[in-house]
Amino acid sequence: MRYFLGVDGGGTKTQAVLVTEDGELVSERTGGPTNILENGEETFRKNLEDILKPILMKAKGEVISCLGVPAVGEFRNSERIISRIVESTVGLKPTLVVNDVVVGWASGTLGRDGVHIVSGTGAIVYGRHGRKEIRVSGWGSIIGDEGSAYHIGVETLGVVSKQLDGRLERTMLCDFVFERFNFKDHYDFIQWIYDPHSDRRSKIASVAVLTYEMAKKGDKFALEILERASEELACAVITAVKKLELKNPLVSCGGSVLVKNEIVRKKFEEIVKESVNAKVVTARLKPVLGGVILAMKHVSGDIPEAIIGKLEEVNEMI
Amino acid sequence: MRYFLGVDGGGTKTQAVLVTEDGELVSERTGGPTNILENGEETFRKNLEDILKPILMKAKGEVISCLGVPAVGEFRNSERIISRIVESTVGLKPTLVVNDVVVGWASGTLGRDGVHIVSGTGAIVYGRHGRKEIRVSGWGSIIGDEGSAYHIGVETLGVVSKQLDGRLERTMLCDFVFERFNFKDHYDFIQWIYDPHSDRRSKIASVAVLTYEMAKKGDKFALEILERASEELACAVITAVKKLELKNPLVSCGGSVLVKNEIVRKKFEEIVKESVNAKVVTARLKPVLGGVILAMKHVSGDIPEAIIGKLEEVNEMI
Prior knowledge:
Structural class of chain A: alpha/beta
Largest interface: A-B, 32 and 32 residues
Distance between the termini of chain A: 23 Å
Radius of gyration of chain A: 21 Å
Oligomer: homodimer
Shape of chain A: globular
Number of domains of chain A: 2
Strand content of chain A: 15-25%
CATH class of the largest domain in chain A: Alpha Beta
Number of helices of chain A: 14
Order of helices and strands of chain A: EEEHEHEHEEEHHHHHHHEHHEHH
């Protein structure tokens, strides 16, 4: 009996699922982050060991695996280096090591031709057409990730600072941010942003929720920021679709900005439908099951509908 | 005999000058950075001690001082806290403790009504009209400093990443950046930007020089980035002028972007002249002498032309 293991790593948490070749759930586990560049090799090893050791003990046969973890593709020989670390840590030589956006793509397109876009704290696009694959955006918080929650947060705080200065007309956005975070004055505001002991990236990304609330109330600056975000996300998808030469492409969406922010999603869909006649969906499966799908496809090509049905059941359980 | 001490602190270096009441140079010294928020209190103390102890030994009478150091105005009670640290470190109770942009302003306007703008690694505007003072921009590298070298660098690297993806049309900018920094591929590019062991802020600010070179060769993206920088810097100055209700204001400029980048400077001048009829100059004195001017003004109001002439001579010597 063969087993299939999917792993979805991330900067805040990591999930792993083991299923039988019939798609029956054997074991599932969620643990700490596994971004080797952000968290370091020691944390990466420790968290993978915590998650994978108990799961692998449940496998009574060969394990075909697909690990989707951040930072793959961002440093030289990343697949080989990560593969060796996993092997020396838990005794498993991974079948596939890919960026976490790739398992997200597989969970959204079920491994079929198409493009997947994630806009959570960061933003990235990945697509495949046959054997051709492409990655767009995802250049990180300093120079890239346009349209992500972090990017929306930075732009919103920038508008607040300009309103405080009088460079921009004051709207309710400024008072709203101050009230929500309990800032008394600009000292509190600066300290909150620049405090070196905080997780600055997540904190600033959390501001995007306030931008959405303000946009729903009609704040013109919040609306402008979200419109730009939609355009940036759509541009990344359109670039991927064109480079892959996909016709009437399937575009699947993941991440809080595209799943929960209806203003961004609506405008994004309008642009990509208009521009490349895309069919836009929200991924039905959790990314970790995209790992399972890629592991299965690796050994057997296309996956029968019955197995996909089984994985949808697993999706409800995990 | 009274002595006047000016200090210009910064994130990369700190300069101090001691003059007699006739404006004769007694002593000058340059040392390490004194940004208490970026470098920490220990470095702040050590560098101030290295610079000020030998200088203060040369003063044979009362010392009136003005310290311009970063981070003043950015945390609560900053003047009082910094004043106490200086007193306990070198035995001098500073007469005035101000942000370094204020000594820059005094070196540019000679302490007269007007607005000073600095665009170096960061960007900030400070102005006075009688007893009224104002500060605009300078909100730091994450949410502010629009039009600074850091900001220009971030935008330029963002355009490069979009050209690599195919989100933007490829121009010579991309190859130029890769050649100058000797990047072989996108791995080198990402590693250079995100390397946690480097001084990321200065490194990214250094890219602004390449943007200028590309703009001079007509690269449309480089020109667009510099045009936006000019507009942002002009907007900050115009906001300060209007809030201060200055008529035909004196606007003095400091920092590499406004002093060396002729494209930014020209457009910036056009906008502020057109909008508020400003007289735009480059500061004739080094900022540290702005500290001396403020210390002198503190005890004697207006400063005679003869003393200003003497300070210009000092400016040549330091």
